[in-house]
């Protein structure tokens, strides 16, 4: 339970860094120049994918897995300091905008319940158990509620009008498939190498370099 809680807190911070970098760009950079800055962020992401498994394996082997939760803290502090210094002071929310709180709540609950149902089904509980059926029902209910809220929100998390744009739909579906496969490999391959091939965390990280090098190129 403590490990799961720690990972949740770490995920909130790490996920916040990723999405806030894009939100900051949308707030202070013009739409025409946004692609250039997103390219720079993408380059950092690619380099991190190459170094991450190697450094992560070394950190785990030398300092222990508990230290993994501490390494993101100085990065988060540095990001907050840099943002506070360089973001223009006139960057602010446009008048009349309201945070789509219910959209956030329903979308988050949908994702969590769907992930839990797929993770627990057939393992912790039978697929036909009331726990799994209840989680799937909760996910469907939250999805319906989310769509209803987004249709009436003044500043929706995900404007439904975007789905009328063919390019948006195609890019979203392709991105989902690509990152689903990519993240699955990145997250599970080091574990497979350690459990099945009995490699050390450091060696498992080094064996990920060919795939990451291809990603970087």
Set out the fold topology.
Layout lengths: L1 H27 L2 H33 L4 H19 L14 H20 L9 H23 L13 H30 L5 H6 L2 H8 L1
Helix pairs in contact: 1-2, 1-3, 2-8, 4-5
Summary?
By secondary structure, this protein is an all-alpha fold. It has helices at 2-28, 31-63, 68-86, 101-120, 130-152, 166-195, 201-206, 209-216.
Essential attributes:
217 residues; mainly alpha; 8 helices; 76% helix; 0% strand
Description:
α1 (2-28) packs antiparallel against α2 (31-63), α1 (2-28) packs parallel to α3 (68-86) and α4 runs antiparallel to α5 (130-152). The protein has 8 helices and no strands. It has helices at residues 2-28, 31-63, 68-86, 101-120, 130-152, 166-195, 201-206, 209-216. By secondary structure, it is an all-alpha fold. 76% of the residues lie in helices and 0% in strands.
Our count of helices gives: 8
Give the SSE string: HHHHHHHH
> Low-confidence segments, ≥5 residues, pLDDT <50?
none
What's the total number of strands?
0
Strand content bin: under 5%
Straight-line N-to-C gap: 39 Å
> Whole-number radius of gyration?
20 Å
What percent of the residues sit in helical stretches (DSSP H or I)? over 70%
Shape designation? globular
Structural class: mainly alpha
Mean pLDDT, to the nearest integer, reads: 82
Major β-sheet, in short?
A: none
């Amino acid at each position: 339970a403590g490990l799961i809680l720690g990972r949740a807190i770490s995920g909130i911070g790490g996920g916040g860094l990723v999405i806030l970098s894009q939100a900051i760009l949308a707030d202070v950079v013009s739409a025409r120049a946004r692609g250039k800055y997103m390219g720079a962020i993408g380059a950092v992401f690619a380099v991190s994918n190459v170094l991450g498994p190697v450094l992560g394996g070394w950190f785990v082997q030398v300092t222990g897995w508990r230290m993994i939760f501490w390494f993101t803290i100085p990065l988060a502090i540095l990001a907050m300091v840099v943002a506070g210094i360089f973001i223009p002071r006139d960057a602010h929310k446009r008048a009349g905008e309201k945070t789509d709180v219910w959209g956030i709540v329903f979308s988050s609950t949908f994702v969590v319940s769907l992930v839990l149902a797929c993770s627990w089904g057939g393992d912790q509980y039978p697929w036909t158990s009331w726990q799994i059926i209840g989680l799937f029902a909760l996910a469907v209910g939250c999805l319906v509620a989310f769509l209803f809220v987004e249709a009436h929100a003044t500043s929706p998390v995900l404007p439904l009008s975007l789905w009328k744009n063919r390019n948006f739909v195609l890019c979203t579906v392709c991105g989902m498939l690509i990152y689903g496969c990519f993240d699955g490999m990145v997250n599970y391959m080091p574990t497979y190498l350690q459990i099945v091939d009995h490699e050390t965390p450091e060696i498992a990280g080094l064996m990920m370099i060919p795939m990451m090098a291809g990603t970087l190129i």
